[in-house]
Structure formats: C-alpha cells, structure tokens
C-alpha cells in the first residue's frame, strides 16, 4: 500500500463554539459537534444552544424553527404515548384470548394455507386473509410470551419513539411486524401457525442498534442483549425464527433510512423507504401465495 505523506486528518471533531475542544457528541437537531459545556439535554441526545434558542421564539418563526426529533418528527410532551397504546392493544387482545378461547386464536393466527378444523374450509394468508400478517403480531396465548415481549417493548420503545417521533415510530413498529410475518409466511410450512409481537420487538432491537450507532453511543449493551436473544431464537424449540429475523432486518433498514436521511429531502427519503419496504413485503406475500395456491 502506498504510504500517505500528508498528516492524517483528526478523527475527532471540535466543538463549533469552542474549536479548541475535541468532542464526539453532535447536536441531535443540527448535527454540529458540541462540547460538554454546550450540551443541553433533549428527549434524545443533546442539542446545541442555538437550536434550543431558535426553538423558543414566537409566532411564525417559532413554528418554522420548532425543535424536532433526530429523525425530524415533532417533539411530544409524552414520548411514550404510542408505546403505551401498543402495549395496551397487546394486553387487550391477550385478555380477549383468555375470555373467548381458541376461536379468536384461530381467527387471528398467522399461517399460510390450511384447514383449522376437520372438514373445514381451507384458510390462511394464501387464501386472501392477509390481515393475519398483522393481527398475529398482537396475539399471545402464554403469559410468559406476552410478558417477555411487553418488557422488550417497554424497554426499547420509548427511546425510539422519542428519537423518531410518533408517526415514524408507529410506521417502524408496524412494518417490522409485517416484515417478520411476511418472512414467516414465505419460509415456514403453510400449516404452521405463528403468533406474537416478537417480529416487531426484534425490529426495535435493530432500530435501537442503528440509532445508537448514529448517536455514537456505546453499542455493546444493545449488541450483547441482541446476541442473547438470537441465541434463544435458534436454540429454543417452537420459536418462529423467521419472524425474528424478518423483523430485525426490516427495523434496521427503516431506522437507517430515518436517521441518516439528508435534511433537505428527509421526509421524502423516510417515507419512500417505508413505501419501498411495504412493496417488498407485498411482493414476498404474492410470490408465496402463487406457490401455495393451485
């Protein structure tokens, strides 16, 4: 390799207000490097004094310069609202399963193509019941299953919701759930049932890793936790690994588009990525449907 003759560039940026101070932290809003003296805590990460000041004006300028989340979403007074709603829906469906029994499970369960009862009609996603791709992601039967998934949602959801904003976080969660269901539908046996929010939760794992890398945080905790969950995924029997991997990949891809989109075309890139991922999910389901139906 040819030796470089010039002096290597500094790997650590300097604070834009104090050039003599090196720092690895950037403003979550304008992305300029800031030192500890200039860091003002925000819902996610830190903001610089100028961004905080421009967000506190009045009238039209205040609306135009309103502080945004890292991904460009509106700051909310309760950064856990969507997480709470999702948790509540999962718990409500679980209570309904306890009250109504197997009938509701059969109606919401994810499977490709099979008869749920002897001499009954053939049902499943391949028979046009595409709603099962989403309803199964809110369906749990065992207490330990919903407890583990809801703990994951409560641990991972609020920081992501605060960083992305409510609309973007909702899109991420639902697309991760659909991505996990689509891969399960495509790879699993058509008569094999699958249920649970695990695909969406693994999507949050992937998104959290992307966000922490973007903010230059220590990624070891989330990577260790993700590795442990992946070990369980491939060693415990009865786990739909397809949902976990599908959700993980979907969540990571969507999160990358959201936190790395250029500011000038941020909304276009973000929602374009969501639309593209949705098209991929639909394409996977169409291909699998053609394989399973005569």
Automatic annotation (TrEMBL):
Statement: the UniProt record of this protein carries the keyword ATP-binding: no
Keyword Cell inner membrane listed: no
Residues covered by the Peptidase S54 rhomboid domain: 128-259
UniProt main location, coarse: membrane
Any one GO CC term of the record: membrane
Biological-process GO terms, alphabetical: proteolysis
Sorted UniProt keywords: Hydrolase, Membrane, Protease, Transmembrane, Transmembrane helix
Gene3D superfamilies, sorted: Rhomboid-like
Family matches, as InterPro entries: Peptidase_S54_rhomboid_dom, Rhomboid-like_sf, Rhomboid_protease_S54
UniProt superkingdom: Bacteria
Residue spans crossing the bilayer: 81-101, 144-164, 171-189, 195-215, 222-239, 245-261, 268-290
Membrane-topology annotation of the record: Multi-pass membrane protein
Annotated GO MF terms: serine-type endopeptidase activity
Subcellular location: Membrane
Family per similarity comment: Belongs to the peptidase S54 family.
Protein's UniProt name: Rhomboid family intramembrane serine protease
Source organism: Streptomyces daliensis
């Amino acid at each position: 390799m040819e030796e470089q003759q010039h002096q290597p560039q500094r790997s650590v940026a300097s604070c834009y207000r104090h050039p003599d101070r090196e720092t690895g932290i950037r403003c979550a809003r304008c992305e300029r490097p800031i030192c500890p003296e200039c860091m003002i805590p925000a819902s996610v990460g830190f903001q610089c004094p100028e961004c905080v000041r421009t967000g506190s004006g009045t009238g039209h300028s205040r609306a135009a310069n309103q502080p945004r989340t890292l991904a460009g979403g509106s700051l909310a007074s309760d950064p856990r609202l969507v997480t709470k709603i999702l948790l509540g829906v999962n718990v409500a469906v679980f209570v309904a399963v306890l009250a109504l029994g197997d009938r509701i499970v059969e109606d919401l369960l994810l499977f490709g193509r099979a008869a749920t009862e002897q001499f009954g009609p053939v049902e499943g996603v391949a028979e046009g019941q595409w709603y099962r791709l989403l309803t199964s992601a809110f369906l749990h039967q065992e207490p330990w299953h919903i407890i583990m998934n809801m703990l994951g949602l409560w641990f991972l959801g609020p920081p992501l919701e605060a960083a992305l904003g409510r609309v973007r976080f909702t899109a991420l969660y639902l697309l991760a759930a659909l991505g996990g269901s689509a891969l399960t539908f495509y790879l699993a046996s058509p008569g094999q049932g699958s249920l649970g929010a695990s695909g969406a939760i693994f999507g949050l794992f992937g998104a959290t890793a992307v966000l922490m890398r973007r903010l230059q945080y220590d990624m070891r905790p989330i990577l260790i936790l993700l590795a442990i969950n992946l070990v369980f995924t491939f060693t415990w029997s009865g786990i739909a690994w397809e949902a976990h991997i599908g959700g993980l990949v979907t969540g990571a891809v969507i999160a990358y588009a959201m936190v790395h989109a250029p500011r000038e075309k941020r909304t276009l890139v973000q929602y374009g990525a969501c639309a593209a991922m949705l098209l991929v999910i639909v394409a996977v389901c169409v291909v699998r449907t053609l394989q399973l139906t005569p």
